[in-house]
Amino acid sequence: MPLVLTEEQSMLRDSARGLISDKAPVSHLRSLRDSKDETGFSRELWKAFAEMGFSGLLVPENFGGSGLGCVEAGIVMEEIGRTLMPSPFLSTAVLAVSALLRGGSDAQKSAHLPKIADGSLLAALAIDEGAKHRPLQINLQAVRSGNGFKLNGAKALVVDGHTADLLIVAARTGGAAGERNGLTLFLVDPKAKGIAIERTVMVDAHNAARIEFSSVEVDADQVLGEVDQGGALLEGVLNIGRGAVASEMVGLSEEVFGRTVTYLKERKQFGKLIGEFQALQHRASQLYVDIEITRAAVLKALQTLDGDFEHAGAAVAVAKARAGATATLAVQEGVQMHGGMGMTDQFDIGFFMKRARVCQELFGDSNYHADQLARMKGY
Amino acid sequence: MSDLETFRRETRAWLEANCPPEMRRPMTSESDTYWGGRNAKFSSEPQRIWFERMRDKGWTVPDWPKEYGGGGLEPAEHKVLREEMAAMGARSPLSSFGIWMLGPALLKYGTEAQKKEHLPKIAAGLIRWCQGYSEPNAGSDLASLQTRAESDGDDYIINGQKIWTSYANYADWIFCLVRTDPTAKKHDGISFILFDMASKGVSTKPILLISGYSPFCETFFDNVRVPKSHVVGQVNRGWDVAKYLLQHERAMISGTGERGIGRPLGQVAADSVGSDDFGRLDDAVLRGQIAAFDIDEAAFAAVAERAVDLAKAGQSHPAFSSAMKYYGTELNKRRHEILMSAVGIDALEWESERSKGGARPRAWLRTKANSIEGGTSEVMLGIVAKRILDLPGA
C-alpha cells in the first residue's frame, strides 16, 4: 500500500481540520484552563464530533459507526495535535472502542458501541499504576468473589477518568507482577461502591484521574475477553493507542515547527531576520527532516495496524519512539528559537511543550519502546 | 487476483528460478559488485549468469523504457520487484553511475539521438561512466568550476582538472561540467558534456584515502577535443542538468550502506560482547544505542518508501532528495561507528587473514565520505532551508 493518504483520507483530514481549527484553536484549551472548567473539555464539541462521525470512527457500521481504521483515527488525532484540543476522542473513540471491539462479547458491544458512536457514552482505560508505563507490572488485584470479582488497588493517569461513564480496568487475576499471564480486563461502572476518583489536572491542562478501588464488586459478565488472558488484548489496544498518540505528536510537532519557522521570518535582531542566521537555518532544516521521517514511520505503523495487526508491534514501537523524540525536539527548539517570548504564558508555544511531555509518557516513552524493539529483535 | 498480485507472483517465481544462490548472500567485498564497462570482468560464474539474465529482461534498469534497454515497468511494478529482490536478499546485478545518475538526466534532457546512443549501452553494462563535477577549487561551491571548453568549429577544446572523480581510472566515458561562457554569472556559463575517457589528452591519477583504498581520482584534461553534439541540454544551461542529476545522485547516496541486508547490528554485537541471562546485550549503553539506531533506520526506510510514493502521486518536493541525502548518510556513519564499537578489538585489524584485509575498519572510514560526497550535510541543510523552508538569505 502506498505510504500516502488516499483521496478519501485527505478529505477526512480536511473536514477534521476545518472543524477543529475553527471550533477549537489553542485559545479553546487556554480558556478551559483559565476558567478551571469542571469538565475540562467541551461537551458541545464532542456532540459535533459525533455528528461528524468521529466518535464512532472505529465503530463498525452495524453498531452505528463508520467502520474506519487506524489510519483514519490517526488523521483525526493529528489534527487534534495541531490545536491541542482536549477531547475524549483518544480515551473513548480510540481506546475504549478498540478494547470493546477486540475483546468484547456481542452483548458488550451492543451495550456500549452504539452509545459511543452517538456521543452519549464516555469511557476511559485504566492501566498505569507506577511512575512509568509498565503494563506487565499491573498489580491491581481482582479476586473471585461470589458471582464475580472484587477489585482492590489504584490506577493513575487514567485519561478522562473523571468524566467517564464506563471504566475499562486492567487487573491481575493471576500470576505475579511482571508476568503476561494473569491479566484481565474488566468493564466497571465508575459509580460502583468502593471507587474513589480524583481528577488530576495535568501539566498540559488536559484531563486525567487517579482512581482507587476498594473491594469493588464486578459481575463475571463484565469481564472483557478471557480471564487471565487479557495481556494480549491489552497489548493490542495499547498499540492502537500508541499509534494514535504518535499521530497526535506528529500534528503537534508540525504545528510547533510551522509557528517557529514563521517566527524566524519575522523576528529581527542585529538588523537581520533571525532566520538569516545559518546556526538557526541548519537546526530548522534538521527538525524538518526529523518530522518528515517520523511522519512516514507513523503512517507505516498505522497502515500495519490496519493491514497486519498481529505483526504491527515493531512498527508501532518505532513510531511511538520516534514521535516522542521528534516532538520533544520540536518543542524545545520551538521555545528556544522564540527566545524570551517562548517562555511567556501569553505565547502558545509553551502549551505545546507541556502536551508533548504528556504524550511522550503516555503508553510508553521513547526509551520504553527502544527497549521493546530490542527485545523483539532479540538483543 | 489483481494485476499487481499476478506480477508479484510471477516475479517471485522468476527470481527463484533465475537468481543463483550465491547472488542471494550479502556482499562481503568490492569484487562482489559488478560495474560493467569495456574492461569488466566477472568475479564469478554466478555473477555473470545473474547479470546476463537480468540484462536480458531489461531489469538492470527496470523502470526505463523498453526501447532504451529497460524493463518498461510501472512504478508500482518496480516497487514490487525491489521488494521481492530484497525479500530474497538478491544482489543488484549491475552497479553503475550510468544507471543512477546519467540515465535519468539523459531521459529528461537528452536528444533522441543521445538517448539511443547511450542508454542501451548503460542498460547492457557495456559502458562504464564517471562523473566530472568537483574541482580543486570548486567543492561545496560547485558552480564556481573553472574547467574550460573553448569553441573550435564543430568541437570544444577542453582544459582543466577535476577531482574526486569516482573510479575515473576504470571509466570508459565521463559526464562532465565545463565552463562554456567565462563572462556569464557562475551558474549561467556551464554546460553538461559527454566524452570518451580514451580521448587524447585525458589522464587520471588515483587518490589514496584514509581507508587505504583509492576509489577517487584526479582527472586532467589537456586540449581534449569533443564534438559539440555531445552537449546534453542547452549550451550554458548545464547547471539545470547538473542539479537534476544531483537529485538522483543524492537519492542514490542516501541509500548507501547495507540497509536491510547483512546481519542486524544487534546480532553482530551479541556475538561480540555477549548477552546476559535474559538475552540482553552485555553492554547496556551499546544496546540502547543500537535500539535507537534501529528505530531511526526503520523510520528512514519508511520515509524512503514514502518518497517514492509521493513522487508517484506528484506530491514530492524536488529538494527532498537533499533531506534524504543528509539523513541517510549521517545514519550510515552512525551504523559504522556502532559496528566498530560492537566488534571492538577485532575491528582494529588492518592487515590480517581473519579481518579479510581490514574490511571492517576500511568500510568504517569509507563512510566518512558519505556526508561529503554529492554535497556535504551542511550544503544539504542549506538547500532545505532555502528551497523547502524558504528562510531568508539562505
How would you summarize the topology of this molecule?
The complex is a heterodimer of chains A (379) and B (394).
Chain A: H1 7-23, H2 26-34, H3 43-51, H4 70-83, H5 89-103, H6 106-117, E1 123-126, E2 141-145, E3 148-159, E4 166-172, E5 183-188, E6 195-201, E7 207-219, E8 223-224, H7 230-264, E9 268-269, E10 272-273, H8 278-307, H9 313-338, H10 349-361, H11 366-376
Parallel strand pairs in A: 1-4
Antiparallel strand pairs in A: 2-3, 3-7, 4-5, 5-8, 6-7, 9-10
Chain B: H1 3-18, H2 45-57, H3 75-88, H4 97-109, H5 112-123, E1 129-132, E2 148-152, E3 155-166, E4 173-179, E5 190-196, E6 202-207, E7 216-227, E8 231-232, H6 238-254, H7 265-273, H8 284-312, H9 320-343, H10 359-367, H11 377-388
Parallel strand pairs in B: 1-4
Antiparallel strand pairs in B: 2-3, 3-7, 4-5, 5-8, 6-7
Helix pairs in contact in B: 1-3, 4-5, 4-6, 6-9, 7-9, 8-9, 9-10, 9-11
Features:
heterodimer; A: alpha+beta; Butyryl-Coa Dehydrogenase, subunit A, domain 1; Butyryl-CoA Dehydrogenase, subunit A, domain 3; 3 domains; four-stranded mixed beta sheet; 10 strands; B: 394 residues; alpha+beta; four-stranded antiparallel beta sheet; 11 helices; 14% strand
